[in-house]
Request: fold
Amino acid sequence: MKFCKKYEEYMQGQKEKKILPGVGFKKLKKILKRCRRRDHRIASINHHQHGNNICPRECTVCDGTFFPELQKEMEDVVGWFNENAQKLLELHLASRFKKCLTWFKGNNNRKRSHLGLIQQGKDLVSYALINSVAIRKILKKYDKIHESRQGQAFKTQVQKMHIEILQSPWLCELMAFHINLKESQKDYYSGAVLASPPALFDGCSLMFDDGKPLLSCELSDSVKVDIDLTCSICLDTVFDPISLTCGHIYCYMCACSAASVNVVDGLKTADPSEKCPLCREVCVYKGAVHLDELSILLKRSCREYWEERRKTERAERLQQAKEYWDYQCRSFTGI
Reply:
């Protein structure tokens, strides 16, 4: 079965359950068909004059149709995925009372069980994967038709705009969620023992290469995600991990130090001009995401390190809090 038909069938099946955004794969392919042979002739001239990165100026596809359409659809897809993955993971980590209250209010009975949460997670992973493949394929087709590299350039651009679904911190959280489920053999809500919990991913694992942690997952034969879990500031396994909006993961206290803020104030008070230590991008701290599932996973996998680091950071946080409130008292009293 051709991917276009497979994608259309998948999205149609999902839309019967709920309304969700997707890539207009079929529509974008039709837009690409507007390119005539004359575009190829113009492209050849431009390639000789300007190199492979230039697309024909008269190309109807490049005149504000193809890329703006695709970018809008990618923003909708990533926004929907992030919102629903966040809701799912917050519910998983919520108290029993909050879970019961949420399930009581919910209209879908499938959501009212632990297995329902797992199935939702699996649906989100499938949604992320198939849309990622669709975007890759349509950009590859664009470059093939135009004999250019504009599609690859666009992919790099959207990665900088943080609308690449495989870069989402919530995908990282779902990966950790999956491994945590494998580790836990109990259904906490019914008391039943699960011999083999349903899987969200195939081939997803936390590995250690020369002591350095790596979260790795093969989503399909052609899509693999590897996430380095070493903080580039303290050069150790991330503790209380947080993902900046640029996608880089740090220890929370290391991120506070890089943003020149106190842990009491938090990253939300960081100056917008503060940059990510790795990519040097600005405005990356305010929308940072706490990776709670990843924190649970690392705590289980590195018990001795985690306990030692917890004691060290607790003392440092208390010291920072003391200095912060001492300063506030002196400012208030004028001493």
